[in-house]
User: What shape does this take?
Amino acid sequence: MRHRRPWTVLLDTVVLLIVVVLFPLCPLTPYHPYHPPHIGDKILVRYQPALTSDELEQQLTLVEKEREEMRYYLRIHNVTDEGYNDVARYNERLQQEYRLLTRRTEHAHTVSRDTIPAKHRPLIAVKIWGGHWKAGHFTRSALFGPGITRDSLGRIVSAVWRADTVVSAIRQDSIGIYRGQMNRHLQASGFGVMDHWDGCHQEGFWKEDRLNGFAFDSSPLHQLRTGEWKAGRFLGERLRYTNERIYGIDISRHQHEKGRKTFSINWNKLRITSLGKRHATEGRTFPVSFVYIKATEGTTVRNRYYKIDYLQALRAKVHVGAYHFFSLTSTATAQADFFLRHAGIRRADFPPVLDVEPSDAQIAKIGGSDVLMRRIRTFLSIVEERTGKRPILYVSQMFINRHMQNAQDIKQRYNIWIARYSQYKPDVKLVYWQLCPDGRVDGITGDVDINVFNGYQSQFDDFVNTGFYK
Assistant: This one.
């Protein structure tokens, strides 16, 4: 037998001591307790393999809910809207996932829990000799290096670094998988995508692990939210006011009377020149495609200019509709009768509108929100039955949040017209958005309420033909 040199024996002893001492301190696996299946890049990485047909059906139901939100978004947006291409690309992945789950559901008896190939398991960042960082899979050879990289919460992170900056990373935890840019503290910062195990998909710009800037949040658990975010809070969608959008106005006697002076409207000169102080138009002007005219209020107030404005709007080939200002001092039935008697709604008119703007104190005085909702239902049902047109409800977004919690039937059956004067579109499904009370229109003296239709020309044409916006 060949005699071993003393220095080789010493080296073996040192290596053995390192293994005995350090090996128990090192994790045998870097994997988080959650083990989602690996799915290709074109399919969403969210759902763990289902064992039963019932579980597959539940997953399919969740995806279908999300697909419905996508269909609504894509119907009322186009490529000129910020983030449209990102949402449309995600929708393609969602359709693929739906088809995959459908096939699995059809063959549920053959489905079993998938194994995860080693090459597809979670990545971590390891520091190799020379001080460089690279993304790689954890192997036992890393035992002799400095170990694995985790963030301050102990989450395993695989990252590609360049000059102490994370240019791309993957992080997995109990919430889901994040892919994208990070700061040096291994927090999501910059552009990234987060797929949650519960089905939520968040994509856009991040700052310190919270959405910040433009992003969208799609989930089967809530309405699609796409637009501006700040420190994880959704602010809303900021519209681009292009000539492709459909604009309209609503008027009352206030467009004719200013103090002791009276003014007429030049319907042949109508052109929107300003969307108010909060909404920049960059010098563009827009045609008036529709107008709503106040007809009545309560059971005693009539707009003396209603009929002349109505007839002149028709002559100017502007789509016209009538609205009633709701009062809490008379019954809903009496108000509906009064409105229908004086508005004279015709077959070609736009759907009539109920304008509801009471204060919280007024609502409390009549018995609360549920009492008010019953009155609103009565008015809307009477008008719908006698005109054959499904009315529109005009309210503020704050009113919906405070008083319509128990009125899902109203929100589902009737189109909603929201008044909101911030820079962001209301976060509800609606037909019109009144975006300012201080717009300017050639042909009208003073400030004018400006409204934008929630869609584009094809959707507007459907609305003109059907009188209802789906």
